[in-house]
Structures are given as structure tokens and as C-alpha cells.
Write a structure and sequence with these properties.
With 250 residues, the chain is mainly α. It is built from 13 helices and no strands. α7 packs parallel to α10 and α12 (214-230) packs antiparallel against α13. The longest helix has 29 residues, at 26-54. The chain starts with a helix and ends with a helix.
């Protein structure tokens, strides 16, 4: 967790929330702390996976991921998919309603996408791309293939016993892994970082790759569209079927 704190430069934002003691309603401050703890757990998970795989210690993890995380911060919210941009606005609005100051609420709302900074940094390093270009392509893919909507639907499922909650968490992890794998495949197809230079370039790259893989793309998209058309919300069974369809893309 120490590596995650340093990579995300948590000191400043945590101190800003702490400074709200006696200056803002407790409900708003508590909601901000809860969100930061959620982000910290997510970043800790991804860094722990890398530490377990490569045997990296805290210093090595910070060296590998602190600069990419810093480079990602000014890209948000513009680099996010439209769905994720709206989700960040909704999160901030909820905390503001609970009494959190607007500027701090909006700052904290943009920390959630940073929980996958290690994923984006690894993609960029493997293809020798700037992390900004990798991030644009990653989030374009998330919006195009509904990874963002499916993760949100899975994350909203809080009922069930411990095993069902564990299954949901693993499903979310699978969706993140599959989005990263698909991004890697599209980066390999594009070849050059100019493919993620801006939003238009990222969109064109994903469209070109989709045209080249038409049948698999149509199957995945139609599966998700058919499920959504039926209504009734996303059950675990529906999410599992959608996840399987997306897995066929890579």
C-alpha cells in the first residue's frame, strides 16, 4: 500500500480532505475518504500483482509507475470515455450534495481512473509508446466495446453471499485484463504511437482494427446490444455472457 500511496501522490489530496475537519459536513468528508480508500485498494491490487510476478519492491514500483501516473493526471477527464466522464461527474455531484467542496470533490472524482495507472504504464512500455497515447486508445476501446458500462454494472452488484461477491470481483478483474489485452492487440496493429495521438486518431485506429476483425466485433457488439435490449438490468449471468463475447476479440 505504501507504493500505491507514493505512485498516486496521495499525500496532497489526502491532506486536503483531512483539512475539511470542522469546515465541511462529516458526510461529505467521509464520502471523499471512502472514495480515496477505494482507489488506493485498486492501485494496491495492480501493484501487488506486479510485485508478485517480478519480485519488485516498493522503490522499484515507485520508479516504474510514479512518472506515468503523474503524466496521466492532466489527461483526465478528456481522455476518458463519455460513459466514464459522466460517471465522474455523478460521483462528484453526490459528494457535493453531501457537503464536500466542489473543487475537492471534482479532484477526488478523477482519481478513480488512476487506479489502473500501472496497467496503462505497462502497455505504453511494452510498445514503446507515450503513456498518453496508450491511455487514449485504452479508453476509446473501453467506450467502443462497452467495457466501461459492463464494469460499472458489475460493480453495482453488492448483494449476495461472499462467494457471489468474489465472483463479481473476479469478473471485473477479467474485464480489465481483457480490455488491456485488446488495447495491446490494437496497439500492435497500429504500430505507431500516432494512432493514439488525440481522440480522433484513437477513434480512427479502433474503427480500422474493428473493420479488419468485422465478424468477431459484430458478434461481441450484437451480444451486448441484444442483452441490453431485453431490459431487466445486468444479472451476473448476463454479465458473464457479455464477458465471454468480448473475450473472443483477442
Amino acid at each position: 500500500m505504501q507504493a500505491a500511496r507514493v505512485v498516486l501522490d496521495f499525500g496532497d489530496v489526502w491532506a486536503r480532505v483531512e483539512a475539511l475537519d470542522g469546515k465541511a459536513p462529516a458526510a461529505g468528508q467521509t464520502a471523499l475518504f471512502r472514495e480515496l480508500a477505494y482507489v488506493l485498494r485498486g492501485q494496491t491490487y495492480w501493484l501487488a500483482r506486479r510485485a508478485g510476478k517480478d519480485g519488485q519492491g516498493v522503490d522499484a514500483l515507485v520508479e516504474a509507475y510514479r512518472r506515468p501516473a503523474d503524466a496521466l493526471k492532466p489527461l483526465f477527464p478528456q481522455v476518458l470515455s463519455p460513459f466514464e466522464q459522466k460517471a465522474a461527474v455523478r460521483r462528484a455531484a453526490g459528494w457535493i450534495k453531501a457537503g464536500a467542496p466542489k473543487d475537492i470533490a471534482h479532484q477526488v472524482a478523477l482519481y478513480r481512473p488512476l487506479s489502473i495507472a500501472a496497467v496503462l504504464a505497462d502497455l505504453a512500455r511494452e510498445r514503446n509508446w507515450p503513456v498518453a497515447a496508450a491511455a487514449r486508445l485504452y479508453h476509446q476501446i473501453g467506450g467502443t466495446f462497452a467495457f466501461d458500462r459492463l464494469r460499472a454494472a458489475a460493480g453495482s452488484r453488492t448483494a449476495g453471499d461472499v462467494y457471489e461477491r468474489l465472483a463479481v470481483r473476479r469478473l471485473i478483474e477479467d474485464l480489465l485484463d481483457e480490455q488491456a489485452s485488446l488495447t495491446h492487440a490494437v496497439m500492435a496493429y497500429a504500430g505507431r504511437p500516432e494512432a493514439g495521438e488525440d481522440a480522433d486518431a484513437a477513434r480512427s485506429t479502433v474503427n480500422a482494427w474493428s473493420s479488419l476483425n468485422g465478424e468477431a466485433v459484430r458478434t461481441a457488439k450484437s451480444t451486448i446490444a441484444d442483452i441490453e435490449k431485453e431490459g431487466g438490468g445486468w444479472s451476473f449471468a448476463k454479465l458473464t455472457i457479455a464477458n465471454a463475447a468480448l473475450r473472443e476479440l483477442t
